[in-house]
Amino acid sequence: MATVQENWQDNCTSISQRTKYIFNSALLSDVKFIVPVSNGKSESKVIPAHKLVLAISSSVFFAMFYGQMSDTRDSIELPDCDYESLLELFRFIYSDEVELTGSNVMNVLYLAKKYLVPSLAEKCAEFLRKNLDASNVFTILPHAKKFEDKDLEDRCWKVIEMHTEEAVTSDDFVVIDRSLVESVVKREKLNVKEVELFKAVNRWAEKKVENQGIASDRNAKRAIIGEEILKEIRFPLMSQKEFVSFVVDSNILNMQEIVNMIKHYSEVLTSPLPYLQSPRTEVLRRVCRFHIFYPPLWGFVGDFDSLVISVDKDVRLCGIQHFGSKGCEYTVSLEIKDAISKLSLAKKSGTYCSEKDSDGISYGFDVLIDRPVILESGKRYEISSIIRGPLSWHGANGQTSVNFEGINFTFSRSASRNSGTNVEVGQFPAFIFTHPG
């Protein structure tokens, strides 16, 4: 806590500067909070505070200090939080500033919800959205569900679908609740080989067995996994070598189930298997080409927007994202052609409603073609759209080449002089594709 300066008010020209000055200071303090240094620790620290400042920022603190059942104590113990997180709650209340990190954001979010400080809760959610990835998604998802943050929850599932293998092999996966494991294996869209998904579930079960201090045998692991999870593993999608090498050795299936699978591989099984055999839906990928996004200034006056794209590995092009404006409708006629022969490979027309993009900044909509087009390595393809509608967002500082998952996407200007879009600015923020099967 800083030393109090004489006539400190002279240097604080606004109320925000004055409250910021007395933050975490004994100066004028009329209440102290005693909190653990960290969760699970017996050692405590004291944070001095000011009832009025807290009360004008939180209805919970207002009721605590000025309500009918007001707390008149000058020291209040809060065992359900830690020093760092409560200090950040108070920092925001006193200064509208917060220092969020990966280690404190969950606890700060909990306190923001508990003490009804929605603007801080939104800052925490924004931090989580920006820092969400496969390594931490299974830490963030349970909190998103707990706090009923549907947007953050949806983003978590998108990360899991897109980066399934990395997510299920993370350290966080082995400590999640059984209900979440069940939700994962029931997911139709997962970007992972079935044997890798099984190995992740097996690791999760082994960790549960270890934590419970029981002998790791077939019955113990199977009881922890449960039939609901087990029946969602699509064993028939594994090769016979994968099944024998990993599933049999896991000691989870009983002998009759193993025999039935061996008969399945040998094509002599006469009764149906209890497992799904259809492949999980392939997850669509997006390669984005802009660094900067501008609000609605892009107009359509009858000319079309076009761009040429090439790849150094074959991909299956499924659609093109277009820019739009909030809540606006656009009529689009999209065509994909061979840039050299001008042969039309796909067309799609329709009316689309623009929504906020996953980046949380711009607005747009996806135009998905009915049958994906294989973009062959080394060939050039022209993407053209005639767009009718109000002014839209547009991108700038476009990239000539983008490497995405080991594939180089190269963009160049269309030969048409009537195109508003080019490599640097315009439409087509993202290209939607999958790897060819």
Structure description:
Helices cover 34% and strands 24% of the residues. It is of the alpha+beta class and 437 residues long. The longest helix is centred in the middle third of the chain and has 19 residues, at 194-212. The termini are far apart.
Percent strand: 15-25%
| Strand neighbour order, sheet with most strands | 9-8-12-6-15-14
Average residue pLDDT: 91
Helix/strand/pairing class, anyone? alpha+beta
Shape: flat
Helical stretch tally: 14
The poorly predicted ranges are none
Q: How much is the radius of gyration in Å?
A: 28 Å
- Ends apart, CA distance between termini: 62 Å
Helix percentage? 25-40%
Number of distinct beta strands: 16
Which descriptors apply to this entry?
alpha+beta; 34% helix; six-stranded antiparallel sheet; 437 residues
Summarize the structure.
This protein has 14 helices and 16 strands. The chain is an alpha+beta fold.
Write the layout of secondary structure elements.
Blueprint: H1 15-21, E1 31-36, E2 44-49, H2 51-55, H3 59-66, E3 75-77, H4 83-95, H5 105-114, H6 118-131, H7 137-146, H8 150-162, H9 164-168, H10 178-185, H11 194-212, H12 218-230, H13 240-250, H14 255-265, E4 285-288, E5 292-298, E6 305-311, E7 315-323, E8 329-338, E9 344-353, E10 355-356, E11 363-375, E12 380-388, E13 392-396, E14 401-404, E15 407-412, E16 430-434
Parallel strand pairs: 1-3
Antiparallel strand pairs: 1-2, 4-16, 5-13, 6-12, 6-15, 7-11, 7-16, 8-9, 8-12, 10-11, 14-15
